[in-house]
Each structure stands twice: as structure tokens, then as C-alpha cells.
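Sequence in, structure out. Go.
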Amino acid sequence: MKGIKVIAFDCDGVMFDTAKANKSYYNRILRHFGKPEMNPEQFAYSHSHTAEQSLAYLFADKQSLEAAHAYRKTMSYEPFFKEMEIEPHLKPLLAKLKPRYQTAVATNRTDTMQGVLMAFGLEKAFDFVVTAADVVRPKPFPDPLLRVLDYFGIAPDQALYVGDSEVDEAAAKAAGIPLIAYKNPLLDAAFHISGLDEIATIVDG
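Output:
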């Protein structure tokens, strides 16, 4: 694919399988307040939204929500790293893309992202990382991806975004960036892949 300069990645569900980790994380908060564990609908929402949005979804009244936010700030995400699984082709792909392409992360994670990168030896793997804490409007708004375009000084058609959810689809579409849908054939995307190693073929094709 000609003209591509930057490949940006979502984190959860793309770079890592974080389903178990995120479920354990939010269930710990719920248990602390005597609430039942997440149902499938609640999990699906929390898996692609920010921590603030997820807690607002899980705690309906203002007082409980404020208490949940306060408790979350006392928690470390580090105990949940062991439940995360890195996508097996991620590191080889990043090595193959350099130095011809620059790479970025655009995620709805906030204060846990840097710790995740460090835990898996990826703290120097990306040229730019933008989290939900860095923008006024996180995904599904295009703001994180617009930050990526601005940082590298490129046009939307010079980037690709790898995502796995409707939130990613909406953000990419609003930013005008072609989407590579990872393991989700239902998304409206320029490309569909089942493994990150397929990205090398796309950009070199």
C-alpha cells in the first residue's frame, strides 16, 4: 500500500488479549463495594471504553461512582499483568516495520498504559503513544487519532489504524484513517486480518 508512513495500534484486543485482566480489574472494584461481578454486556462495554466511562456505566448513582473512582486510584494494575497475553506477532511485526514506518498507540487506556508497555518490554517500541488522558474526547471520537496525525505531520491517508471494536471503527472513520480490523469481520474496514503478521503484507503490497 503506497504512501503509508505511520501504523497506529489500539491496545486492548489488538496488541494484547486483555479480556481476563480487565474483567478481573473491574470485578475487584465491584466486589469491594458488594456488587455482583460484571455481566457480558457490562464487560463488552468496559473492554473498549475508558476507565471513567466504564465506572460510570457500572455505578449508577453519583455517590457510589465517586467512591469507585477514589478506590480505583488506590489500585495498581500491575497484579493484572499476569492475566494479559501479548499478541504473538506484535514484537516481530514492530521490528519488521522499523525503520521504514513509524508506529503509534491510540488507546482508551489512561494511567495504566505506560505500565503495560514497560511490563512487556515495549516502552521504546513506539514513536508516539496517546491515551484517553491526553485528549478531551477519547474514542469513539477521532481526537486520539487526530493527535497521531498532528504529531507526525501526515494526512489521514498516510496512516493505518489497527482496531478490533466499533469504538475503533468510529474513531478511524471520523479521522479519515483507513482501518485494519483485527479479528472482527463485522467492522467496516479497509482490511480484515486474523493476525498482526498480515500487516506487513498490507503495507508492502
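Check: The first strand starts at residue 6 and ends at 9. The beta strands are 6-9, 16-17, 85-86, 102-106, 128-130, 159-163, 179-182, 191-193.
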